[in-house]
Each structure stands twice: as structure tokens, then as C-alpha cells.
Amino acid sequence: RYDDRMLGGMFAFGRAGQILIITPFVLAGAMSPISIASAVAQQNAEALAGIAFVQLLRPGAPVIYGGFTSNIDMKTGAPAFGTPEGAWAMAIGAQLARRYNLPYRGSGSLNTAKVPDAQASYETMWTTWPAILAHTNFVMHATGWLDGGLTVSYEKIIIDTESLAMFQSFLGGLEITPETLALDMIHEVPPGGHHFGTPHTQARYATAFHPTFLADRQNLETWQQHGALDTQQRANRIWKQLLGEYAAPPIDAAVEQELREFVERRERELVGVELYS
Fold first, then answer.
1. Which of 88, 129, 135, 151 is deepest in the core (most CB within 10 A)?
2. What are residue 78's phi and psi, to 5 degrees?
3. 275 pLDDT above the threshold of 70
4. Residue 133 in contact with residue 171, Cβ under 8 Å?
């Protein structure tokens, strides 16, 4: 069922040729039958209904096929995120979108943890990895999500940003060339030796590995000497430092004034506009 706000958005944006992301929200066991196959079938029917409606408003209007399907926790009745069932739903949704030759909207960073702890991390991975493996085109809620979307955590934003940077590095691929194989270095360094001082290492040590800004890789004694901060505490320091050092990007005063006048003019023009006419 599409409510008045969703229909109003479809009318306004669809007729204007703006991209619409049609994303049903389905929780297996509550909003659909309990089986994930049935939940995704319902998701697909709802998405196609919305997509077809937009095409009636404006044939050829750009749309994105979205999916937001997970399951209910049968012990509490609360939504569950970062589950194997949700991962299956995301993978199937992506395949359906490709079947219709449409971009796919999925989710990342979903979890039901109340603080950015271990549960938040492993449930986030159980959403983000499936989104990547499914070749999701547009990922919503990629950082900061906690408590089923009821809470945003600055610490979680920092933790998720660190993770996303690692995913980006991984997806960049691995270069296999005679230079990266470095077979001559393997032969040159004898058993029991090390590669720290070889020309190959010296030429590449600064850029060979993905740099981290959050993870702690010191030994135990050094970590203790520096305050024994855990991940949440380090993330807390980072976001506070970032906000403290933030400076708004410069904008030409004339450009800013023109933008403000445009917004004010459009707000006046849209007063009383009937979205459904």
C-alpha cells in the first residue's frame, strides 16, 4: 500500500523526470509470510507496482529498484537486521533488479545494537558484505546506523567510514605484474631473512598497504602506555577532532545569494500546488 506521501512524491518527481527509488519495506513473519522466498516475492510485487505507476505518469521516467527486506526476531517481535535472511533477500533483490535492467538500491551498516559494540560490527558486516557481493548500485544507511535505525552514532560513523574505505580498497583490485610478483626478491632473501630493507620494499612501503586511521595495531604494552583506548574511545576522539577543526567551504557571496533567492522563489511558486492533479 502506497500512502499519500509516497504517492505525492511519485506524482511530483515522476512527472518532473527525477529519479525515483521504489523501495518496499518488508519484514518476514510480520509484514509478509515468514519464509524469505515469500517475503521477497511480495517485495518484488510491491516494487513493480510502484515502478509501473511511475511509468504511467511519465513513460521512460528513471527509476531504481529498491529492496529493504529482513525478518522479525521471533523472541521479541522486533525487527532484526544484519541477519543471514536479510542477506539472502538483498542478493535476490539485486538479481531481480538486473533481470529488469534496473539499478538496485540496497542497504549497508544495518544492525540492532544499541551502542557501537561487537554486535553492531558483526551485524553491519552481515549487511555490507552482502550489499557488495550483490553488486548493489546504491547503498542507503552506509554509516552511523544503530538500534534498527532509531539512533545515529558519531562513533559508528567513524567506524563505518574506516570499514568502507577498506571495502573501497578491496574493490580496487589487485595488480599482478612481474614487478608486484617480485620473484627476484624471493630468491634474493634467504630463509630466515626479512624484506624490510630490500629495494622492492623501500620503494613501496608508504603505499603498498591500505592505511588505517582508526584501527590500533600497536603491541599490548605500547597500547597501554597510550591510554588503552578501545575502538569506541578512539572513534570518539576522531569525530570530536573533525568537528572541532571543521571550516565551512568558501562560496562566492553572489552565488550564495542567487541560490537563496532561487529557493525562496520556488517555495512561493509551490505553495498550494496540487500534487495529484
1. 88
2. -90, 155
3. no
4. no
Per-residue pLDDT tens digits for 139-158:
999 999 999 999 999 999 99
Q: Is the distance from CB of 122 to CB of 81 less than 8 angstroms?
A: no
Distance, CA of 126 to CA of 109 (rounded, Å): 8
Q: What is the DSSP code (8-state) at residue 212? A: -
Listed residue (135, 195, 198) closest to 167, CA to CA: 135
- What single-letter DSSP state applies at residue 143? S
**Residue 48, amino acid:** L
Compute φ and ψ for 104, nearest 5 degrees: -115, 135
| All residues at 6 or more sequence positions from 17 whose CB lies less than 8 Å from its CB, including other chains | 58, 61, 62
- In the DSSP assignment, the letter for residue 32 is B
Cα–Cα distances (Å) from 166 to 41, 170, 215, 217, 267, in that order, read 33, 6, 11, 15, 42
Distance CA 218, CA 150 (A): 35
- Phi and psi torsions of 165, nearest 5°: -65, -35
14 vs 1, 63, 143, CA distance in Å? 18, 9, 28
Does the pLDDT of residue 165 top 90, yes or no? yes
193-198: which pairs have CB atoms within 8 A and are 24 or more residues apart?
Answer: none
Mind spelling out the 3-state secondary structure of 48-117? Answer: HHHHHHHHHHCCCCCEEEECEEEEECCCCCCEECCCHHHHHHHHHHHHHHHHCCCCEEEECCCCCCCCCC
**pLDDT of 1:** 77
Is residue 143 within 8 A of residue 157, CB to CB? The reply is: yes
Query: 140 forms bridges with which residues in the sheet?
Result: 107
| H or E element, residue 152 | strand 151-152
Q: How far apart (Å, rounded) are the C-alpha atoms in residues 71 and 56?
A: 32
